[in-house]
């Protein structure tokens, strides 16, 4: 969950999903061997909704058999600003029992990429915040640029992390790094993320990220498929088959987020965040 820049007033803003033909797009390159999966709500920094999750799951399930590697990126100037604010307000007005189930379904729609038999590379071409950054952490390889803004702002909202953050981040970057980033909510640059081991490469410029990810994807796609598929399965199993594996972590996260959604602190932070977004937009219009 992050700071998706949706409506300025809770429940009064118009839904933008109907204005976007495809919230997730898939383009195939290199004779169908390399796919580019794009989160496509650039007007709201690719904020994540239920509708986007359903489109994401549909695109993943319909990948061509020829696919050998998949690049995940965002349209416009962001990778993803995380969970849409209207979705957060809906959760804050629902019951803990319902929210546990809603969050599990929300995670599953996006984390279905863990079932893809080919490597998934995140081309973090702009800000990745909250659930958006969690999604990137769930992929196999991450590439960004030096000045990119990366943040897990859950703590500042009074919300437990979700979308597998507590599972993937410690395994990728280590316990101490995960603990600091998740409890402080501090923002880091792409260069710092590279230093911490969260990404494998940083380009100098934002416009180089996708091309670098495609370069790596093509290197992978040139290799025989069976060797890549079996190696990837072994690598992922080292994470997912832990005693306290991914599914257990997601259940814990969903329960904890459901508890947080019921608090006054979270609602107060949501209102403050909505107000801050409105003020920033008003300032830009002057």
Key attributes of the depicted protein:
10 strands; alpha/beta; six-stranded mixed sheet; disordered N terminus; globular; 286 residues; 15% strand; four-stranded mixed sheet
Secondary structure layout:
Blueprint: E1 24-29, E2 34-39, H1 50-61, E3 69-74, E4 78-80, H2 85-92, H3 96-111, E5 120-123, E6 127-129, H4 131-137, E7 141-145, E8 149-151, H5 154-157, H6 165-173, H7 175-184, E9 187-189, H8 190-196, E10 201-203, H9 209-221, H10 225-240, H11 246-261, H12 264-285
Helix pairs in contact: 1-3, 2-12, 3-11, 4-6, 6-7
Largest sheet, spatial ordering of strands? 1-2-3-5-7-10
Radius of gyration, CA atoms, in whole angstroms: 18 Å
Distance between the terminal alpha carbons, to the nearest Å?
Answer: 30 Å
Order of helices and strands: EEHEEHHEEHEEHHHEHEHHHH
Indicate the overall shape. Answer: globular
Low-confidence stretches: 3-20
Q: What percent of residues adopt helix (DSSP H or I)?
A: 40-55%
- Percent in strands: 5-15%
Q: Which class do the helix and strand fractions yield?
A: alpha/beta
Output mean pLDDT. 91
Sheet with the most strands?
6 strands, mixed
């Amino acid at each position: 969950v992050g700071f998706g820049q949706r409506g300025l007033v809770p429940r009064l803003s118009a839904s933008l999903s109907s204005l976007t033909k495809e919230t997730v797009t898939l383009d195939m390159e290199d004779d169908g061997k390399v796919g580019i999966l794009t989160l496509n709500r650039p007007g709201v920094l690719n904020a994540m909704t239920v509708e986007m999750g359903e489109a994401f799951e549909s695109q993943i399930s319909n990948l061509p058999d020829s696919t050998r590697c998949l690049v995940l990126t965002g349209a416009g100037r962001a990778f993803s600003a995380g969970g849409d604010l209207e979705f957060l307000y809906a959760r804050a007005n629902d019951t803990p029992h319902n929210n546990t189930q809603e969050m599990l379904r929300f995670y599953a729609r996006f984390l279905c990429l863990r079932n893809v038999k080919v490597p998934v590379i995140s081309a973090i071409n702009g800000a990745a915040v909250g659930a958006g950054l969690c999604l990137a952490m769930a992929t196999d390889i991450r590439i960004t640029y030096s000045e990119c803004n990366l943040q897990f702002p859950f703590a500042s909202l009074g919300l437990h992390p979700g979308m597998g953050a507590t599972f993937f981040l410690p395994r990728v970057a280590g316990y101490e790094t995960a603990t600091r980033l998740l409890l402080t909510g501090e923002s880091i640059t792409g260069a710092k993320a590279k230093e911490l081991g969260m990404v494998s490469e940083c380009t100098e410029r934002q416009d180089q990220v996708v091309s670098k990810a495609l370069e790596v994807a093509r290197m992978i796609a040139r290799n025989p498929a069976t060797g890549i598929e079996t190696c990837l399965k072994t690598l992922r199993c080292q994470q997912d088959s832990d005693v306290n594996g991914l599914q257990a972590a997601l259940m814990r996260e969903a329960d904890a987020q459901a508890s947080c959604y019921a608090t006054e602190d979270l609602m107060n932070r949501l209102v403050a965040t909505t107000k801050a977004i409105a003020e920033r937009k008003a300032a830009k219009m002057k």
